[in-house]
Each structure stands twice: as C-alpha cells, then as structure tokens.
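Q: I'm teaching a short session on how sequence maps to structure, and I want students to see two examples side by side rather than one. Could you give me a first protein with its sequence written out and its structure tokens following it? Keep the formatting plain so it prints cleanly on a handout.
A: Of course. Example one:
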Amino acid sequence: MGLSTHVLDTSHGTPAAGMSVALYATEGEVVHLLKAFVLNKDGRNPEGMLLDNNSLKVGTYRLVFDVAGYFSQLGLVLPEPNFLNKVSLDFGVAHADQHYHVPLLVSPWSYSTYRGS
C-alpha cells in the first residue's frame, strides 16, 4: 500500500504546485532524511508514492512542508516573520500493510491534516 501525501492551497483553492517537501524517518530525537521533492501541478509527489509497500515500515515519520517558501514564490506579500514557515507533521505507522495518506490543507494563516485514504 505505502505512504503518500497531497497538499491543497486553501487560500487559492488549488493544489500547492511547487511546494518543497521533505520526508524523514524518526527514532526519538534521531532524524533521517528519506527523500526531498517538489510537488507537481496536482500538489503531489511527481514520483507517486513516497514509500512503496516494501519500503514503508512500522515506526515514526515526519513530513516537512515549506509553506513560507511556497507562498513567497507565488509573490504573496506577507508580514515578516511569516506566521507559518515550515509545517512539520510527525505521525506514526502502526500497520505497514495499510495505505497511509497524509494530506495537508494550508493557507498563510492555518493548516489542517488527517489520515486520508
């Protein structure tokens, strides 16, 4: 099944094309970068799944979304410092045989996430 993500820019009502994202595996305070990528026109990883069924393991992970960089590249003028800079989502995978979809809904002022399908 694997791991995937999707980002929607709720202030513009569009996918967050061009946003930089990084995926890490975490073990307590130890953090390992697994991959970094830029979202495609659909607000998704251009390579598809972040981790495929064989690569997803039980454990803890972190997705880091460069929200400030994304809105800056759109030319949106925001107060400095930005309210949101990088959004980090720490989450656990208890069942590596299931699909974990971690979407982010974001504006310059707020974000939300959930375990999608």
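Q: Perfect. Now a second example for contrast.
A: Example two:
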Amino acid sequence: MKFSSRQPEPASMQLAPMIDIVFLLLIFFIVTWQYTRSETELSVSVPTAEEGAQKNRVRGEIIINVLSDGSLKVEGSVVNLAQLREKLSLVAKQFKNQPVRIRGDGGVSYQRIVEVIDTCQKSGIWNISFATQRPEPKK
C-alpha cells in the first residue's frame, strides 16, 4: 500500500475583516476625541487661581459649563436646572461617585454656581470639582 503524504494547504489570512476592525477603531477614537473637545466651551473664561490641582480629567467626568449669561451647557446642549437634575439623577443611579466638573465663567454670579451645586447634590452627586486656570505670569 502506498500512502500519499499530502500536505494540507496553508490557511490563508483574511485581510478584509482585519481592515474593517482597524477602520472601526479609527472611527471610534476620532469620534470620542471630537466629543471630548466639544465639552469644553471656549466662551467660558474660568476664574484664575494660584493653587489648585492640574486639570487632569477623570474618565467619565461630566462637565457643566456655566456661561456668562447664566445659561447651562452640558454635552453640547443648553439645559435648565430641572433638565440638569433629571440628567444627573439618571447618571447617579447607574454610577456611584460620579465625578462632575463645573466650568463657571468668571463673570457669572455666585448664586448661579450655588444653584448648580445644589442641583448636583439633589441628584445624588457629591464628587464635584471646579475648573480654574493659572494666572498669566507677570512680566
């Protein structure tokens, strides 16, 4: 009896699925990068402080922008205090110790900032920080 030594054909690697995954990852990172850039309103001029922590963002942090006219902007949309409370309540139910950063304009009234803090606390969020910037160095 003669046995034939047939070697199986080498398995070929499919490139199309791998290219699809690479493009999906690329799109994901571009979209999330654009999303984080839109959270910080450029029209908000935060107050200056000599001391303070670096502006390292916490993952999943919600940014509340308080504009100079007192309006609130969260995730690119203008909201009132009731809408803010509803949004924060839903998030607080899902995530314990949810971080929130308040970016209040330097010209906005202190009462408006206190109203935002009060709304956060009523929603069950206690991990609140404030955005500041370092003063310009004196020449």
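Q: What should students look for in example two?
A: Point them to this: The longest helix spans residues 15-39. Also worth mentioning: Helices lie at 15-39, 81-94, 110-122.
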